[in-house]
Amino acid sequence: MANDAQKIARLLQTLFRASRGKMSVGWMIALGVVVGGYLVFEPALEARLGVDLPGVHSPEEVDQNDTGQVVFKSDDQNAAQQTGQQTTKQTSTDAKALSKVLKEIGRDKFVSPAGILYTRGSRHGTRLKHLMAHAKDQPNRPGQHGVFNDSDAATVLLLIDEAYEQAISGQSTQKKTEGNRTIYTVHLGRTIGYIGGQSGARRRHPQARHVRLVLEGKKLITGFPVIP
Amino acid sequence: MPDPETPRMLYVGFCRMCGTGALGLRTCGGCAGVVVVCDECDVAWIDEDLSDPPATTGSETLPCPHCEASLYDPPSHWTTGDEVQQSDWLTHALDHNRLTLEVGQAFLPEANDPDEDLDRKDS
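^ inputs. structure came back:
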C-alpha cells in the first residue's frame, strides 16, 4: 500500500477513535461514504484536474539494480518477474528497425501512427536518439532529467503518441506556445517515469505522471517525463 | 564534479521554454561568437536577455544567430573559460551579476557512447 493510503487509514482510525461516543453512527457512516467515494474517484479526478492527489493508486515498487540505480517496476514487469518470464526490449534507436511503429516518408524522416514527425536534429543526430536518451538516467546532468520507466523504443514512441493525441484533445493538458514552438504538458494518469539527473537524485527520484512534449508543427523536438 | 570523459559545459541557468535543459554556452565554429543554447530543446539566445524570444530555434539544425553556421557540428563546441573572458557581452553580464556561471555535464549525445562508436567502425 502506498504511503498516502497508509496516512489516510491512520487519519481515519484517529478520527473514529476521537469521535467514539461523540459522533452518531449516521455521521460515522456518512464520513466513511465520503472517504470511500474519494478513493474510488481519485484517479478520475487526477486525470481531469491534472494534479497529483493523495491516494492508493501507486502500485509501482521501487527497487535497486546491481549498480545501485533506482528502478521502478511496473505491474507488467512485476507480473513477468513473478511468472519467470523475460520481457524482450527493443532498445534500438534505428528508426528503420522500428517499422511497426514508424513509417519512413523521406530520407531520415519518419512518421508515427499519431502523425508525429521524427527527423534529423539535436546533438544526438536524430530526434529519436534524443528521445531515447530519456530512457536512461544521466545522474551527472545538471538540473532534472526525465527518465521513462520503459526503455523499449516502440513502447516509448507509442507513449509519446498517446500523450500527443491527449494533448490535441485538450484533456488534462497545459499548452504553451512561443514562436513556432508548442510545449504540451500532459497528465497521463499513471506513473510513466521518474526524475533523474542531479536534481532528481537529490529528491530520491520522484515518480512522474506527466509527459512534456516540445514540438515545431508536428516535428518532435523532445519529450520526457516531468513533474510540473 | 562532471566525469572528465564526458562533455564539460559551462552553463548559466535552465531553459524557461522546456523547463529542463541547462543553458549552455556554445562557441560558434563559423564566427566564434558565444551564444546561449538549451541542451534539451535546441534554442539559442545571443546574450543574457533570456526572457526575450530565442534568436533561433532548431529542428533539424540549430543555426548560429549571427552567421547561421551549425551550432551542433564541429568546429562549434562548448565554450571554454578563456573564451568566456574574450566575450564582451558575457563578461559584462557576469560582472553585473546578470548571469551566474556554473559547470556541469552536457546532455550526452549517443555519439559519445563507446559501444556505438565500435558499431560504426565495424560497419
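The beta strands of chain B are 8-14, 22-27, 34-38, 43-45, 56-57, 77-78, 102-105. The helical segments of chain B are 81-86, 88-95, 114-122.
thumbs up if we can close this ticket
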